[in-house]
Amino acid sequence: MNDEEIKKIMQQLDIPGPDESKKKVTVNAAMTEFNRQKQIIQKNFKGIEGERRLTGKLKTVLTFFGEFAMKKSFVITGAVTACIALLIIGLSYFSVYKSDFQTKVVQYEPEKTPIQPSDTLEQNNKRSQKDTVTNNLQKIGSVDSNQSVLTKTEKQDGKMRFEDEGIFASVMVNEEKVDMASPSVTTQPKPKERSRNIVSEKKKTTAGLRQGNITPRREALALEEMDCIATIPPPGEHGINEYRETGRDRFETIKPNPVKMVTEEPVSTFSVDVDTASYAFIRRQLNHGALPQKNAVRVEEMINYFDYDYSVPTDRSRPFQPTIVVYPTPWNSETKLLHIGIKGYDIVPEQKPVSNLVFLLDVSGSMNSHDKLPLLKHSFRMLINTLNEEDTIAIVVYAGAAGTVLEPTKVKEKSKILAALDKLQAGGSTAGGEGVRKAYELAEANFNKEGVNRVILATDGDFNVGIQNPEELKNFIERKRAKGIFLSVLGFGQGNYNDALMQKLAQNGNGNAAYIDNLNEARKVLVDESSSTIFTIAKDVKLQIEFNPNLIAEYRLIGYETRILKREDFNNDKVDAGDIGSGHSVTALYEITPVNSKQKLIDDLRYKDSNHSGKTEKKSFNNNEYGFLKIRYKLPDSDKSDLTTTSINKDNEYTRIDDVSADVRFAASVAAFGQLLRGGTYTGEFTYKDVINLAKTAIEKDTFGYRHEFLNLIRLAENY
């Protein structure tokens, strides 16, 4: 067959045109390789340019030092300097080429895969997008865990990929692509369906770990990814349209108690304080990355937040039995701490009186936050579950106006009460004063002479409509208190939290103030300590101590700045003081300076009369007594006070702090921490680490973990 025959046959053949899709893929592959080679050439060119620049600089330096060395007077100096310069330039030159060499070594090499048509690639992509977290993790789990280390991440084809020595895993949840750097979901499933899917994937992942298919490192990574997605609030959930405000938290200005001379003021008088709001607010601030403002720190409330194993009286008519300890001050070797602890009579469940409770709930616009009204609802649900069936509950709410949501209802109709609670929504201004009036009207209308009559106010304290004048509110609540209706206050939220007003309301309403920052605190206040919150065993409780000037030169009461009373107020039953609930414990600490101390803060007077030095006539008991303690109180159904007394003598003293009980040491550590948060005026060189070391020795009994939590708060404060 000759050439003409072959040519004729070829002309008769119908040769098909090139496949456009294959042509496109081939061209793209060629361009990719072209660009890669171009980048390599550019890097090499930059390296050559860098070499030329370094060589030119080297010649310039050598020329300079050569000319410099030609001068006879500088020959030796020039030679030495030139050697040093050569060494520095050589090291710089080596570092440039070393970095270039490393860049070439880690350079990406494309995978050698056969070129596929575009429609085939799309099908493969769709199949890969249907992989779940579990399947991918099981694929990775087949690799030896000792060799598998996540080295880098890159975003490719719209999804995040983890490179693990050549093995890639696409993290997919509900077939949605997730960007680990900025978690977002393209299509938001319904909240309930979304939660079920994520929980299901978590269970599968955890099961894979137990079977050995998934390494712990990969399980942690996958679960962290799913948690990140799960916490994204869908539209309508909290975090989208909730009320937020900062910088308007209000606290009463506190000036720390000064050191006083016993010869000038031998008597100290104050009202008890069983509130715990300060500690809970401090905890929230520290957990949110900020130190609390000084006026938010009330040391006595921090100490009284914790329970102590004091002696409990057995007779309800004598509700207190003081615990007194004297021991060395942890932060000052020249002073002593006087620890006074009392614990109220604990009512047994069978003796609890019937309760007539009115919930006064703030549903104004400022309560539209996940840590306010929603937390409030959960908290009161807990309280309702602790009450007896014959107890009565009414619910009053206030926003732009006050209204009754639930008339007085027996707790045995719990479903009705909970339904009314669940329907509450936030909105409007805050007519707090009007709400207070209506709540007291309901409590008075359903008054039980043999039971407990109490209004429980839950709010952020942002009253802006109705009775706004604190004095007017105070007088109103005092009048209702005289009729036997008491008030307790629960604070919620931060940013516009009005602690100053809430403290005044609670103090004048013969109640206590607590701050609810989470459900654990709600359970502590309204479940574990519900008897203390609701049932009063003594009212108008006052303490007075007379110090012996023959043994004590100076004293300072730690905390209780807002509870100081005049000396004459102690015996005046018309002067209001704090109340103590069933099983409540109260602790007070004095720092006392012995007369022979080398670190007295107040100097003796130069011109004092030696015949009237202020010292009492020495008697036999004066050599043994540090002071004399008096406690005055009223029983709940009485308007006349009773008195109990005890001496503070050397029999109560310990020479080493290690010898006192764990409760006493722990109270000292809390007092030290509170003083440091306020600036540490009297704590010397005592540090947060010292507080931690002291508290560590006193966490033996910690059923609910409150003392361990306290240690963590100290560590947080230490780092701010």
Automatic annotation (TrEMBL):
Keywords: Membrane, Transmembrane, Transmembrane helix. It comes from the Bacteria. SMART domains: VWA. The chain crosses the membrane at residues 74-94. SUPFAM superfamilies: vWA-like. Gene3D superfamilies: von Willebrand factor, type A domain. Residues 356-534 form the VWFA domain. Residues 114-138 are annotated as: Disordered. CDD domains: vWA_subgroup (cd01465). This is VWFA domain-containing protein. It comes from Candidatus Scalindua japonica.
